[in-house]
Amino acid sequence: MPLHASRAVLRQSRFVIRRPALRNASSTSEAAGNAANAVKEKGAEVKSKASEGLSKVQSSASNVVSQASSAADAAVAKTSGTIGFVSSLIPRVVYYGRVGLELGKIMFEQRSMNPPSLQTFQSYYQNAINSIRGGSIKNAAPSAQSFQPSNILGQIRSMSHAQYASAGVIAAEVIGFFTIGEIIGRMKLVGYRGGKHGEGH
Fold first, then answer.
1. 141 in a structural domain
2. Structure confidence at residue 41 as a pLDDT band (50, 70, 90)
3. What's 148's DSSP letter?
4. 118-160, pLDDT tens digit by residue?
């Protein structure tokens, strides 16, 4: 092979060897540039998403704080209204409590009612304890004979006029207390609050 030809082949082989390296080098630098651009774009995208998320969190947090403060204000308003209502009722409750106490005293004095003495309590409870210990509770209980209709009618017929009057007064008191309890429970003098009759049925 002539020298001239061998030089040409050698040049060709160097060129052939360099060519892929140059081609790879240019594609590697392009790939690196593309990767750098992609990373920059991803970074910008992540940054924008993070700022959006942060703004959403801030807005929702401010909404929660404003709702909590408005709820606290409403609770304070309701509480102060309730306290004012209860405070306005205290003088009336004290007055009517004293009136009821005085009426009770008058009733006790007119009926000559006195609380039982200490000896009466002791004797009653001593008898009850002895009957429990002795097992004679069955004897202390009223018999079935006393609950017969004829016995009950006989007891009613044998009552005096004073006992009838006392029973009438006690019945009137029970009815009166029941009626007052109903008025207080309904918070109205007549009827119940609410819509149409039978709505919940």
1. no
2. confident
3. S
4. 888 888 888 888 878 776 555 555 555 667 788 888 888 898 9
Cβ atoms 159, 165 nearer than 8 A: no
The angle subtended at Cα 178 by Cα 177 and Cα 183, nearest 5°, is: 95
Q: What is the count of structural domains for the chain? A: 1
| CB within 8 Å of 97: residues ≥ 6 apart | none
In a domain, residue 153? The reply is no
Q: Whole-number mean pLDDT of the chain?
A: 76
Judged by DSSP in three states, 201 sits in: coil
Nearest-angstrom CA–CA distance, 65 and 59: 10
Residue burial 112-142, b: 16+ Cβ < 10 Å; e: rest:
eeeeeeeeeeeeeeeeeeeeeeeeeeeeeee
DSSP character string of 60-118: HHHHHHHHHHHHHHHHHHHHHHHHHHHHHHHHHHHHHHHHHHHHHHHHHHHTT--PPPH
Expressed as residue numbers, the domain containing 23 is 10-114+160-186
Query: Can you give the pTM of this predicted structure?
Result: 0.28
Determine the Cα angle at 96 with ends 90 and 99, to 5°: 145
